[in-house]
Design brief:
Blueprint lengths: L8 E4 L5 H12 L3 E6 L2 H10 L7 E5 L5 H15 L4 E4 L14 H28 L3 E6 L12 H6 L1 H13 L4 E8 L5 H12 L6 H9 L10 H12 L10 E4 L7
Parallel strand pairs: 1-2, 1-4, 2-3, 4-5, 5-6, 6-7
Helix pairs in contact: 1-9, 3-4
The protein binds NADP nicotinamide-adenine-dinucleotide phosphate.
Protein name: SDR family oxidoreductase
Organism: Natrarchaeobius halalkaliphilus
InterPro entries: NAD(P)-bd_dom_sf (IPR036291), SDR (IPR050259), SDR_fam (IPR002347)
Length: about 260
């Protein structure tokens, strides 16, 4: 299916790796011109190189999404390069795993800036440009933890719900000009999940990487964890006119793990 994204302009935040990169790839393969960003110049350059040959152009901008000036520059450079902005996709670095008693006030504020304010700033800066697009969309990558708290992931469980509250609200405020949706990944094999499994191997929870993946997959009806492409393609669909009546949705991409 042609998603009719050719020539559209997209900005994907926190996208030099993992789910952000997979979303940028799916959009660029559909012919959208895409800006990717991240803090590490090396990681950003390898991500840009990976996207070489996609149908759309790719602009790589070094930026920290917890800095509002960087977010503003990211949007400006995208609009300057591609002549507008049609699709905003937000991702962010994951907060550290911690229990309540291990978490102090600074951790709470840092998680809030990373997970919520980065999205608020990106929307504030993008909105005037999305309004000029005939098909403006906002898609936020959050987590299944907005529906089911995961043990030891206090900050993700608590703070990410601000993003789904935001999406529910703006999907009504910004419609019909701009559609806004959220995707809720379950367990998808990205560097973040690889690090998590490696840490559990070091602490003796798993024997090896394969053992870790099997354990993570054990409760998933699809009997495996997801591939980044499987999330990226949903993000491209939600950005496309083929999802033109999908607005305010919170779509789990978790192989059926959650029951609600
Ligand atoms: N993978 C999963 O199964 C899963 C499940 C549920 C939720 N999530 C959530 O989805 C998000 C993405 O996860 P992922 O698996 O794609 O992680 P990942 O593979 O570690 O990628 C994170 C990306 O974000 C960039 N980034 C991190 N902090 C940034 C910042 N302050 N400014 C700009 N870029 C930043 C990283 O590059 P730099 O470090 O170079 O900046 C990297 O490109 C996270 O919030 C994660 O918790 C993931």
């Amino acid at each position: 299916m042609d998603l009719e994204l050719t020539g559209n302009a997209a900005l994907v935040t926190a996208s030099s790796s993992g789910l952000g990169l997979a979303s940028a790839r799916a959009l660029a393969e559909e012919g959208a011109n895409v800006t990717i960003c991240g803090r590490s110049a090396d990681r950003l350059e390898s991500a840009r190189a990976e996207l070489d040959g996609a149908a759309g152009e790719v602009l790589a901008v070094r930026a920290d999404v917890t800095d509002p000036d960087d977010v503003s520059r990211l949007v400006t450079e995208t609009v300057d390069a591609f002549g507008g902005l049609d699709h905003l996709v937000t991702s962010a670095g994951g907060p550290p795993s911690a229990t309540f008693i291990e978490t102090d006030d600074r951790d709470w504020y840092r998680a809030y800036d990373t997970l919520v304010m980065s999205v608020v700033w990106a929307i504030e800066e993008s909105r005037p440009h999305l309004l000029e697009s005939p098909s403006g969309t906002i898609t936020c990558i959050t987590s299944r933890t907005v529906r089911e708290a995961a043990d030891g992931l206090l900050l993700s469980n608590a703070v990410r719900r601000g993003v789904t509250g935001l999406i529910q609200t703006i999907s009504r405020e910004f419609a019909p000009e701009i559609r806004a949706n959220a995707v809720l990944p379950g367990t998808i094999e990205t560097p973040r999940i690889e690090e998590l499994v490696e840490a559990r191997i070091e602490s003796g929870v798993y024997d090896d990487y394969r053992d870790g993946l099997e354990d993570l997959a054990s409760e998933i009806p699809m009997e495996r964890i997801g591939e980044p492409r499987e999330l990226g393609e949903v993000v491209a669909f939600l950005s496309s006119p083929h999802s033109s009546y999908v607005n305010g949705a919170e779509l789990a991409i978790d192989g059926g793990l959650m029951r609600n």
